[in-house]
Design brief:
Chains A, B: One of its GO terms (molecular function) is glutamate-5-semialdehyde dehydrogenase activity. 2 copies of one chain form a homodimer. By secondary structure, chain A is α/β, with parallel strands linked by helices. Helices cover 40% and strands 20% of the residues of chain A. The first copy, chain A, has 2 domains: 204 residues, Aldehyde Dehydrogenase, Chain A, domain 1 (3-Layer(aba) Sandwich), CATH 3.40.605; 135 residues, Aldehyde Dehydrogenase, Chain A, domain 2 (3-Layer(aba) Sandwich), CATH 3.40.309.10. In chain A, helix 3 packs antiparallel against helix 8 and helix 6 packs parallel to helix 7. Strand 15 of chain A pairs parallel with strand 12 of chain B, so a sheet runs across the interface.
Chain lengths: 427, 427
């Protein structure tokens, strides 16, 4: 579509400018746009499926030659049911309460001098992902709802699917003179360009392999939201309920072993009835890896896990804070003090008590959808929905006020200097 | 104090571990620690002054030889009044409502499966600054109140002052077995080490020259909170009130020309009575620089500013979004539509209407104090107080719940799969 380098840059700059118009719309108009997208996705389900079949045909060759994994192929393929369900994402995001333009702090500094902090869009977001065409819909909808323009760079393997989905979204936006707000990137040179566009692109959301996410982090000054690793732990405490233990561990490992929130390491207290648990896990077909220092950072992406005996909850927490990726860790225990300590001291985005690590997900958490899961501590941590695509702006309204009329230290005001009233205002 | 490289690393790791104990204290105990620090600062005011005099004696030589600027010297020097006021910072931070450990999102996912998002400390923060000894007190107090351990690296020129202040703070903490929570770094090799401690150090807060802040950003994978430039603008709209204009521009330029929130560029609409304004500004001794493309990013740090005529508010906004640093920009206008457009479209941390840019400050904004001002859009934007030193953690409590029992799509549940209830809970 776009081959020229300067063209692509200009298109991204136009998207950034357009985001201002999008953000200026009343919230119900942005909601309406998402509902139109939902309707168009339903209407165009056949076209989406047919484009996806084209992608799948090419992918099947790569699958045979070993250039593509079965897992990647499964994520690429849209069943008629899945294609028909794409509109659900647009509808569920449209229904989220819009925190855009809300005031999250307000304070009267003095008569006629009022401060507000308002939530506003980041501006232009770039999502770089692979395979799953539904990400195109999810990310676009979250971006548009939050008033952000978005650059979409899907995988080469999903090119036809993404072109059709992108076309649907862009056409709806064109009806509101906002077609510029979405950009489809289709090649690696454009990724390279995105990485250099600090100031134009406000955030990059990479979804893919550890190596890929790390590459993006290492090659751009633009903030990156995402996670490289998903080394999730379960600590089986002394006196853990073995029935709960088996339910949780089985689900955490087997319900979707390739997911980033699947468990990779099981830490067992000697008094945790681990023998019972071991037999039960054997029965479920979970492979034990009596692991060592080199395997504590292994993502199995299959039905295996590392197992370590730890002598105390303190040792378990220390192990997790040393080898974990800060994604999701769980404790299985009937001891509430241990649960509280684990929750307080484990340094991770999600910390669970007697629940499967697999629950770490934006939809599950009630965020509507997610643009990704962040293992960074700053900005947004854990599953990221609309809130993670917003920033804030301090707005001060005066009537010619000058700072030199006020003192910075109420105990040392100079002659004629006033104190601030600092009266919190209801929002 | 510490000369050995591995020692320093071990000390920082111990600080990180200690932060967990600090964060586990009830909020009123952390408040009590700050009040103790305030009392000790008052008691030790003479010792602080005497150490500061020692720093100043060395600095005076550097001042004469031209190795130190007068501005830096002024920031270094503590008057008896200033030294006596250091405890005010500790007291005002102690009085802030502690948002640590509060729940900012809560949702019942199903019976017995409850999600909460709690606010928790980042862990270990490193502040790197120069000259002003009061920063040692401000940053320590904000860090301790928010449950964070802190590495303090002040300027070489303030070494004796900082050692005494650090000693006071550490001794109070020692009384609570928390002495490890504060670390004093004293040389450049330790800065270099801090930059490499990703995973141990959670955030770096550099305060200093543009070049210095940029150096830190370029040489560390650790998140950096701060601002490199402070290119603040005032746009004088058509029909602006000339009296307000002069008050605001004079204050924004002259009340503290070296401050990052001082105005550097004045954009004038031809119909803004700029001639009147020009005469008045002349009278105040503000030097006009009829500027050109090369000066739009100049920080004068003195009584000068760049002046540009713009033909419309749109051109003014475009200029600011092109050349500004996203710090603080103001419009002077009696036209409310123009004010609203300016506030909406200017992409900066602080956007003001009829008020001086100099108001952009944590204390002024009612945040108690600030660790710095951020021009990044992510995490914390503008003056940063306690909130910017916190992250969040998702806590899910269940009773053996497994994800495979639930459907991700209410319209396509498999046999026996349940829907989430997603019932928002009062916090």
């Amino acid at each position: 579509m776009m081959n020229d380098i300067s063209d692509f840059k200009a298109v991204c700059e136009a998207a950034k400018r357009s985001s201002v118009k999008l953000a200026a719309l009343p919230d119900d108009l942005r909601t309406g746009i998402l509902l139109e997208i939902a309707a168009e996705l339903d209407r165009a389900a056949d076209a989406v499926l047919s484009a996806n079949r084209e992608d799948c045909r090419a992918a099947e060759a790569d699958l045979k030659s070993g250039e593509m994994t079965q897992a990647l192929y499964n994520r690429l393929k849209l069943t008629p049911e899945k294609a028909g369900g794409l509109s659900v994402y647009a509808k569920s995001v449209s229904a989220l309460s819009g925190s855009l333009n809300t005031v999250d702090y307000a304070c009267k500094l003095d008569d006629g001098l009022v401060l507000e902090r308002i939530r506003c869009p980041l501006g232009l977001i770039a999502a770089i992902y692979e395979s799953r065409p539904e990400v195109t819909v999810q990310v676009s909808c979250l971006a548009l709802k939050s008033g952000n323009a978005v650059i979409l760079k899907g995988g080469r393997e999903a090119l036809h699917s993404n072109r059709v989905l992108f076309g649907i979204i862009r056409d709806v936006l064109a009806g509101h003179k906002l077609a510029d707000c979405v950009v489809l990137a289709e090649n690696r040179e454009q990724i390279r360009q995105i990485l250099t566009m600090k100031g134009t692109v406000d955030m990059i959301i990479p979804r893919g392999s550890n190596t890929f996410v790390q590459y993006i982090r290492d090659h751009s000054a633009i903030p990156v939201l995402g996670h490289a690793d998903g080394i999730c732990h379960i600590y089986l405490d002394e006196g853990a309920d073995p029935v709960k233990a088996v339910r949780i561990i089985t689900d955490a490992k087997l319900s979707y072993p390739a997911a980033c929130n699947a468990v990779e390491t099981l830490l067992c207290h000697p008094a945790s009835e681990q023998t019972t648990t071991a037999e039960l896990l054997d029965r479920e077909g979970i492979a034990y890896h009596p692991a060592h220092d080199n395997t504590w950072r292994t993502e199995y992406s299959g039905p295996g896990l590392s197992v370590k005996q730890v002598s105390s909850i303190d040792e378990a927490i220390r192990h997790i804070n040393t080898y974990g990726s800060g994604h999701t860790d769980a404790i299985i225990t009937e001891n509430d003090l241990h649960a509280a300590q684990f929750i307080r001291e484990v340094d991770a985005a999600s910390v669970f008590h007697n629940a499967s690590t697999r629950f770490a997900d934006g939809y599950v958490f009630g965020l509507g959808a997610e643009v990704g899961i962040s293992t960074e501590k700053i900005h947004a941590r854990g599953p990221v929905g609309i809130e993670g695509l917003l920033t804030t702006k301090y707005v001060l309204r005066g009537a010619g006020h000058a700072r030199s009329d006020y003192t910075d230290n109420p105990e040392r005001a100079k002659d004629g200097q006033k104190n601030y009233t600092h009266q919190p205002l209801r929002r």
